[in-house]
Amino acid sequence: MKRLALLAIALSFAPAAHADIIHKIQSSIQLTVDGAASQASRIGSTLSTSGNNVTLGTAPTLGSLTPASAIGYTPGDWSVTTAGDAFSYSESFIEGDATPSATTVTSGVTPTLPMLGNTTTSSGGVAGTLAGTIASDSAMTLTAGGAGTTAIGQIVTELTVK
Fold first, then answer.
1. What are phi and psi of 108, to 5 degrees?
2. Residue 59 contacts residue 48 (beta carbons within 8 Å)
3. What is the full DSSP assignment across 47-113?
4. By C-alpha distance, which of 119, 99, 112, 121 is closest to 36?
């Protein structure tokens, strides 16, 4: 009994314990719907000719480039120089893109996308049923949306004792 009394007296003189306890809960949900995109690059017009044992009558020509119209092409007029001898002739033309009109954006939407010689187009996402919630008990619910959507949820709990 004396030991217990001595222990009680010793503990009564001990300083009180003091600890800082910090508890943090951070939660977030990120819902993303991809936008439509188009990247278009114009290609230029090219004209090339070559020949052997041919005579140029009228040279091939390219037209003039004007807004919203292609350049145009008139083929050349050639004849064999020495009849009976071997000859070769080649003429090629690639029609380049017309000068497109400016692209406009109205309420975040481009009504028409340019179609040029080199075009890559991606369709936009569809939100559909895309949704996310975090309840007060940290229960998370993420609902998948349509194509081109992303749902990311995160809960971080931190406990610090000093």
1. 80, 5
2. no
3. EEEEEESEEEEE--EE---BBTB---EE--EEEESSTTS--EEEEEEE--PPBPPPP--BTTB-SS-
4. 121
The encoded tokens of residue 5 equal: 């009394």
pTM recorded for the entire structure = 0.47
Q: How far apart are CA 160 and CA 106, in angstroms?
A: 51
Give whole-number Cα distances, 118 to 40, 86, 98, 100, 115, in Å: 6, 39, 13, 13, 8
Using alpha carbons, select from 48, 38, 47, 46 the residue that is nearest to residue 100: 38
CB 31 within 8 A of CB 132: yes
What is the distance, to the nearest Å, from the Cα of residue 154 to the centroid of all Cα atoms in its chain?
25
Per residue in 101-111, pLDDT tens?
667 777 666 77
Which H helix or E strand runs over 134? strand 131-134
pLDDT per residue as tens digits for the range 20-57: 889 998 999 999 998 877 788 888 888 888 899 999 89
Report the b/e string of 70-89 with b at 16+ CB within 10 A.
ebeeeebebeeeeeeeebee
